[in-house]
Amino acid sequence: MFEPLISKLNDLRVVLASSSEQRAMLLRSTKIKFEVIPSNFEENLDPKEHTFSDFVEKTALGKVNDVWERLKTDPVKPDIIIGVDTMVAFNGQMYGKPKTKEQAVRTITDLTQTNIPNQVYTGVVIRYRDEVRKFTEVTTVHMSKLTPEEVLAYVETGEPMGKAGGYGIQGIASTFVEKIEGDVNNVVGLPLCRLTQTLKQMILNK
């Protein structure tokens, strides 16, 4: 993040429509001033009816729209709302956030039992006043094989819960990630490079 974009953004009301601590941490690293207002959007889209990119973009748009509806009557309306959704695809199947330890064990077992990499899809939607832009960033993650005992030990740490694909690359999962192709921040949950470039196009190129 650099001038003059940072100065322009810091004159605006910027909202991150996410409860993810990892996303907020990444966005803070850019020195943008923003508010965190989690969305109440019910993430209930049917994966079978959408492509991977379409699924994450529609979910991110739902988050943005939900927050906009709640804030649009504020004395100072938000100028920018950023919505994000991340999921993992492996062998043609979509993996979201495991809700139970059993689901986490199945997910991590699937991702670490072959030499097939998984792909992390993050859909980002930016509403800047009345303009809406959306994009999907994809990162490929190669993992080493884990024994059943290692999978269970990882799940018992609690790290997989609440994370798309059941792993947190910024945490213990880094010990079994062999290689990444693409933006590592995308795997954490927010593709900063693509986000910054899109904000520049929307705000500076007017």
TrEMBL record:
GO terms for molecular function: methyltransferase activity; nucleoside triphosphate diphosphatase activity. One of its GO terms (biological process) is methylation. It comes from the Eukaryota. Pfam families: Maf (PF02545). SUPFAM superfamilies: ITPase-like. Keywords: Hydrolase, Methyltransferase, Transferase. The keyword Cell membrane does not apply. Its cofactor is a divalent metal cation. Signal peptide: none annotated. This is N-acetylserotonin O-methyltransferase-like protein. The keyword tRNA processing does not apply.
